[in-house]
């Protein structure tokens, strides 16, 4: 399962609210009311923006599983992705890719899963959360 939820950018799909809602059987809807479902970046069911992701398309074209394996990393595509102020969690991707390069997928899913689990009540939270939806405690 770890490979399905490893984004080509290095993100852990388990931190995505759409992924979490899909897994809970309660998909979120887009503006038109159409359900948004996703089983992870390397799965067959993706969100519309993940289907045509520039990072994924580039990595696949070069036969890399993550862009961290590419000798051109960091390139303009990943740098723009990391520096988008709307998504501060993108800043983690270079650290994640370094971890993957050194350790592979071993323990990656467990470590990333723990990153998005509330330390107070063990509930899952998403990339953008500042507080746990269940207990209200701040999350990092």
| C-alpha termini separation | 25 Å
Strand order of the largest sheet: 1-2
> How helical, in percent, are the residues?
25-40%
Beta percentage is: under 5%
Number of strands: 2
Low-pLDDT parts are: none
- Residue-averaged pLDDT, rounded? 91
Instruction: Give me the secondary-structure category.
Output: mainly alpha
Tell me the series of helices and strands, N- to C-terminal.
Answer: HEEHHHHH
- Report the sheet with the most strands, covering strand number, pairing sense and barrel closure: 2 strands, antiparallel
The shape, in one word, is: globular
| Tally of alpha and pi helices | 6
What is the radius of gyration?
15 Å
Pick out its properties.
140 residues, mainly alpha, two-stranded antiparallel ribbon, 6 helices, 3% strand, globular
Description:
It contains six helices and two strands. The chain is mostly helical and about 140 residues long. A two-stranded antiparallel sheet has the order 1-2. A hairpin with a 5-residue loop joins strand 1 and strand 2. About 25% of the residues are buried.
Strand and helix layout:
Layout lengths: L16 H7 L4 E2 L5 E2 L11 H4 L2 H8 L14 H7 L10 H11 L4 H8 L25
Put the structure in a nutshell.
With 140 residues, the chain is mainly alpha-helical. The chain is built from six helices and two strands, in the order αββααααα.
């Amino acid at each position: 399962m770890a490979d399905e939820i490893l984004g080509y950018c290095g993100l852990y799909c388990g931190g995505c609210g759409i992924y979490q809602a899909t897994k809970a059987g309660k998909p979120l809807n887009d503006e038109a009311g159409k359900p948004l479902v996703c089983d992870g970046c390397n799965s067959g069911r993706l969100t519309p923006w993940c289907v045509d992701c520039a990072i994924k398309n580039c990595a696949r074209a070069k036969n890399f599983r993550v862009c961290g394996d590419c000798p051109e990393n960091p390139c303009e595509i990943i740098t723009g992705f990391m520096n988008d102020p709307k998504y501060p969690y993108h800043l983690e991707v270079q650290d994640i890719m370094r971890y993957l390069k050194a350790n592979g997928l071993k323990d990656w899913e467990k470590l990333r899963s723990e990153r998005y689990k509330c330390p107070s009540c063990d509930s899952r939270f998403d990339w953008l959360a500042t507080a746990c939806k269940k207990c209200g405690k701040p999350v990092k």
